[in-house]
Specification:
The protein has about 280 residues and is of the alpha+beta class. The protein has two domains: about 80 residues, no CATH class; about 150 residues, OmpA-like domain (60s Ribosomal Protein L30, Chain: A, 2-Layer Sandwich). About 50% of the residues lie in helices and about 10% in strands. The longest helix has about 55 residues.
Length: about 280
């Protein structure tokens, strides 16, 4: 019998040609990251040198490790001194602290100014209340300290006849005395406003309660600023008609409360900004 020849299995050769482009790719990536890192802190001259190296690597095929000396050069000149860096950080923190402190100082100054102004308004209110009590006007005059300022309310029948915007002669003296109470140093802004009930007006002089309320405020303001010690630039007049009632218009007593003239004495200090 003839012997069977054994077939020898030939080992397949592993193709390792892919390692070459893979190694080149890793080399190029390494070069890229080195360039990015170095260029973040180099001066212009070194940046040009680094650009040339980068170009040589990509075009000439040189090994990036041949240029390792470039990274070593990027030491003392471009490194940040830890002490200097700490000083810069401390300086930034100090500036931030100063800014915060300035804001707190402004806030404290504003709060203090508002508190002083509120005390002054209370003193003014006491003086007006003393005048009201002295002249037995408690049923016609009233004061109230509000968020907007000091409010002096005058019942309209004290000043005006029904449907009229002319201040009654018998009460012109009251307007003069009120004017004396509005003498402030420094001066304050004062708003005089007129209000009515919701009963339609039956006068040929005014087409609406709105017009009546405006003219009552203006005419009363004219009497007030006749005082030579008052500067008209600090005064203004408004008319709200029946649109800001303080009581129900369903009863006569409520309508009587709604017919009024209000004098609002404004604070000197704004609640938003205090000039330094």
């Amino acid at each position: 019998m003839s012997r069977r020849r054994k077939k020898h299995k030939h080992e397949e050769h592993v193709d390792e040609s892919w390692l070459l482009p893979y190694a080149d790719l890793l080399t190029l990536l390494l070069a890229l990251f080195i360039v990015l890192f170095a260029s973040s802190s180099v001066n212009e001259a070194k940046f040009q040198q680094m650009s040339q190296v980068f170009n040589d690597i990509f075009t000439g095929g040189e090994n990036v490790l041949d240029y390792a000396s470039l990274i070593e050069e990027n030491d003392e000149e471009d490194q940040i001194d830890p002490v200097d860096g700490a000083n810069e950080t401390d300086m930034e923190l100090t500036e931030a602290e100063q800014t915060v402190q300035e804001i707190l100082d402004v806030q404290a100054e504003r709060d203090s100014a508002i508190a002083r102004d509120q005390e002054e308004l209370k003193e003014i209110q006491r003086a007006i209340n003393e005048y009201i009590s002295k002249n037995n006007l408690n049923d016609q005059f009233a004061t109230q300290l509000t968020d907007e300022g000091l409010l002096l309310t005058i019942r309209d029948n004290v000043l005006f006849a029904s449907g009229s915007a002319t201040v009654q002669a018998s009460y012109s003296g009251a307007a003069e005395e009120v004017a004396q109470l509005l003498e402030f140093d420094p001066p304050r802004n004062v708003i005089i406003s007129g209000h009515t009930d919701n009963v339609p007006i039956g006068s040929a002089d005014f087409s609406s309660n709105w017009e009546l309320s405006v003219m009552r405020a203006v005419n009363f303001m004219k009497l007030v600023i006749n005082n030579p010690n008052l500067d008209p630039q600090w005064f203004s007049a408004k008319g709200f008609g029946e649109y800001q009632p303080i009581a129900s218009n369903d009863s006569e007593s409520g309508r009587a409360q709604n017919r009024r003239v209000e004098i609002l004495i404004l604070p000197k200090v704004s609640s938003d900004v205090v000039s330094r």
